[in-house]
Design goal:
The complex is a heterodimer. Chain A is α+β, with helices and mostly antiparallel strands. In chain A, 30% of the residues lie in helices and 14% in strands. Chain A folds into 2 domains: 31 residues; 90 residues, Alpha-Beta Plaits (2-Layer Sandwich), CATH 3.30.70.3270. In chain A, strand 2 and strand 3 form a beta hairpin. By secondary structure, chain B is mainly α. Chain B has a two-stranded antiparallel ribbon with strand order 1-2. Chain B starts with a helix and ends with a helix. The relative contact order of chain B is 0.14. The chains are: A alpha+beta, B mainly alpha.
């Protein structure tokens, strides 16, 4: 008799309770993001692909000092220096192997010239291994441009490492 | 004479087309509802809101390679999908889906064939469906298919008993086997047999889910145990024939449940055929809802539940209803 009462209770109380749970969840907002169409807003501190900054006049900030390569724990950065038109030192070759890079951001921290930054982009899938070897031309920001997308990041880096505004 | 043939043919054509479209969109509905119940979105890319997904799936299945494994029993293997598919459509021959209408000077009934033993036809035909599954499992020459087939036959036989007994209450009250007359007796909502046969309805819907091999009674095709059960070795259009037959069975059972317990096409304001569709739709939703909610039975639990719970309850329901009907007649 006890078992019968228990079973009836299951049918008329427990099972509708379960059904109610699924019904409630039917009207909740799905957590799925419609990815390629909609993208998740990235955190300001997110470390994505690398950028090489320029001065306002368009000349490269990077002086090829090699500190980023020294700081890189994955040994992903390779560079060769050369002399520029006005006798300044700059990078002839500046390569980052994105397959080796662990996006730790140490290069960004090590850079005394504030030349290298990690941006927000994370979609650099490719079908050839060679295309993961990013050269200077791939990473340099285009010269005439309206806004600096790294202003926030630069400010953050300066704040974190106690660099005063220039 | 010829008019009858033409009218019947048109009705058959319409019903078959409606059922096949319904099956296609039942898959869409299942994926959508199940998805949203799990905080997912479901199909989204083919057409607006993924509405063309069934079309895309159908095209894909047609163009897939039809793989026939080496150690299959060829004739039976080819025949099994059809044996599962045809009975699932045959059910609709007696299901009344609309009221009678006068059109072009003829009286057109809302049912393909108004058999006076309609409900027996439904049960006879749905039981035939198990042959397709058993033969598919046996002829595939694979252990998973075989296990699925064995489970399927054991489950069908066990639940057939309670399934048949659960509707006897309705037949006793309605005093007819004709589905059309049963619908006509449920003109208003208070006359619905679900209120006079609540236990009968619960038993019916439970057994119906087991009969159509749906969760939580989906042991014949338990993905996590048997790969895919009886249709493991099938591919391409043969697989989709099984798939369609499963959904057609679901729609058939929903239609029968609507007819027997929820007044069929009867309803206010809206045209009868729409009422019928709405009620069937709600049943299909119930199917998906149950699938999203309850876990699968263990095999021994399934058998114990069928024989020790459903069968005695169905018997009890039959005896009590028969007694009450006799009592009201006698008074």
């Amino acid at each position: 008799m006890k078992e019968v009462i228990k079973a009836v209770g299951h049918v008329f109380i427990k099972m509708p309770q379960g059904l109610l749970v699924t019904l409630k969840h039917l009207f909740k907002k799905p957590v799925t993001l419609d990815y390629p169409r909609k993208k998740k807003p990235m955190m300001p501190r997110y470390r994505g692909r690398h950028y090489l900054e320029r001065y306002d006049d368009g000349s490269e900030r990077c002086v090829c000092c090699g500190l980023c390569a020294a700081a890189c724990p994955a040994d992903a950065i390779y560079m060769e220096p050369e002399e520029g038109e006005h006798g300044e030192r700059r990078a002839k070759v500046y390569e980052i192997n994105l397959l080796r890079c662990i996006f730790c951001g140490f290069c960004e921290e090590a850079c005394p010239e504030e030349a290298i930054f990690l941006g927000q982009e994370y979609e650099f899938a490719a079908d050839k291994r060679n295309s993961f070897l990013w050269t200077k031309e791939d990473m340099l920001v285009p010269h005439p441009r309206k806004d600096n997308p790294f202003k926030k990041i630069i400010r953050r880096v300066r704040k974190v490492y106690g660099v005063t505004e220039q | 004479m010829w008019e009858i043939v033409i009218i019947s043919s048109i009705k058959v054509l319409l019903v078959v087309v409606a059922i096949l479209t319904g099956c296609a969109y039942a898959t869409y509905m299942e994926r959508k509802v199940l998805g949203h119940m799990q905080h997912r979105i479901g199909p989204l890319y083919a057409g607006p809101y993924g509405l063309l997904q069934p079309v895309a799936d159908g095209l894909k299945l047609i163009f897939k390679e039809d793989i026939v494994p080496d150690n299959v029993e060829r004739t039976t293997y080819a025949l099994a999908p059809l044996l599962a598919f045809v009975p699932s459509l045959l059910t609709f021959a007696v299901v009344p889906f609309a009221a009678d209408v006068d059109m072009f000077g003829y009286r057109i009934t809302g049912v393909i064939s108004d058999l006076n033993i309609g409900i027996l036809w439904v049960f006879a035909v749905t039981s035939l469906g198990v042959y397709g599954l058993v033969l598919a499992g046996w002829s595939s020459g694979s252990k998973y298919s075989m296990l699925g087939a064995i489970r399927s036959s054991a489950q069908m036989i066990s639940y057939e008993v309670a399934y048949g007994l659960s509707i006897i209450g309705v037949i006793l009250i309605a005093n007819t086997f004709s589905l059309r007359e049963i619908v006509e007796q449920q003109a208003s909502i208070t006359d619905w047999f679900v209120f006079r046969q609540p236990l009968g309805f619960l038993l019916f819907i439970t057994c119906a889910i087991a009969e159509t091999n749906r969760a939580p009674f989906d042991l014949p095709e338990a993905e996590s145990e048997l790969v895919a059960g009886y249709h493991t070795e099938y591919s391409s259009m043969r697989f989709s024939t099984f798939f369609i037959s499963e959904y057609a069975n679901m729609i058939a059972v929903s239609s029968v449940a609507t007819t027997l317990f929820f007044g069929g096409w009867q309803g206010p304001l809206l045209p009868p055929i729409l009422w019928f569709c709405i009620k069937v739709f709600l049943f299909m939703f119930l199917y998906i809802w149950l699938r999203a909610t309850f876990p699968r039975f263990r095999y021994d639990q399934l058998m114990a539940f069928g024989w020790k719970v459903l069968f005695p309850l169905a018997l009890l329901n039959t005896i009590v209803t028969a007694g009450l009907v006799m009592l009201t007649d006698w008074l």
